[in-house]
Amino acid sequence: MSGEAQRLRLDTLDQLSGQGRGWIGPALDPRALRVGVVHLGIGAFHRAHQAIFTELAGAATGRDDWGITGVTQRSASVRDQLMPQDGLYSVLERGPGAAPLRVVGSVREVVSGAADPAVVVDRIADPAVRVITLTVTEKGYRRDAAGRLDRSDPQIAADLAGRPPRTVVGQLVRALQRRRAGSARPVTVLSCDNLVSNGEVLQGLVHDFLDALPSAEAGGLADWIATSVRFPTCMVDRIVPATTAEDRADALALLGLADEGVVVAEPFRQWVIEDDFAADRPAWERAGAVLTKDVAAWEAVKLRMLNATHSLLAYLGALRGHDTIAAAVSDDQLAAVAEALMVEDVTPTLRVPDGLDLDDYRRQVLKRFANPALRHRTTQVAMDGSQKLPVRLLGTVRDRLAVGVVPQYAALAVAAWMAYVAEGREARGRELPLDDPLADRLRAAATAGVGDPRRLVDSLLRVEEIFGADLPEHDGFRAALIDHVRRLAAG
Predict the structure, then answer these.
(1) Looking at the domain that runs over 296-490, which CATH code has it been given?
(2) Is 139 exposed, middle or buried (0-12, 13-18, 19+ CB in 10 A)?
(3) Which of 177, 271, 411, 455 could be joined to 289 by an S-S link, Cβ 3.0–4.6 Å?
């Protein structure tokens, strides 16, 4: 990227207005936007998904009170990218049907949750904020093996002890506490992460935190939350790969300005939201979202068909030396396995939502994965497997085992994860990174089973946070895993 290029900002964008350079400017004047949403976990996905829906909803209704304050949870890199750009960034779609480069202006502020935890509490407690959204990934919820708040987690323990909160659940509870003591205005907390019944999960974690506080400190907060806070469930879908230097160069060529915050996405985007809000909300349906009373069926289809197949292709593809998901799905053997997972194992477990053609959905999934313009790396999708397997694959496994069927393709996906953890290298000898919150435990478990598929399977099945107490005891599932691991090791 040229060191001489001007940076994307409000003033430099104004200079380009009307020049017809093949890009779309913000749908609303960012200068006029007032913050009504706080988003926890402002990574690339939020900027390519909810932030666009929110801006388009505001434009459709003429509302200027749905600007977004984004909160980074760990690294301050997004703050450092966007704040010198007045919150502006561009979205670069890749693939057939891609729209022109879009500059988004709905993010009006980015704060660091690690550096400024008190500011996060202040923003959520602000009475002008009516919606709090989250994309903090599965591990950001800090759950234990039973799915409850992990009170043994040192960061959770520190938040419970009263430090300025740095965990998501701690931030929410302390901010709701402040809100109740101040304006007491109702607010909606909307999880957008890939968790089954994500709203119900988050509500439960909030109450777990409250239950761990001294009763005098918690006061009547739980009762106030019950009447003034809603935790709807939602399902989100858009493939958003990591941004590369080439992407930044392409954005510069299209826009004529350097954008350090550009995000890349496929043309497709989907958002299904439970219509259960405590107060006002953006008219997201005017931007293409589906508002419904029944998210569960949509959620199961997406998690079990799209996300599970994504993980299968990531692990099998990485082991075969495929760098991207598109390369993996272009491998005829892997494409056949991916389709078989959806047809034979997943489909019998689903309750299909009204209006959804499941066969068409399956074909669309494979078509989206085959988009070579996205360059979605297999090792990126392979991250955090210990958190993803239970919500993407193991529900299907349990449902099929319950009716007496061992789901062979779901078992293959789990076995591929085991081989990925154990081998650490792909077919050409390149290292496979193990980026996982349980990495140390997984490496230790895999080491105990090196060279012996049976011992490897047994050792990894004993990681209860992933497999619970039931799956290690199922002889048919265990046998399928051992057979698949043996075949994968043999090439």
Answers:
(1) 1.10.1040.10
(2) middle
(3) 271
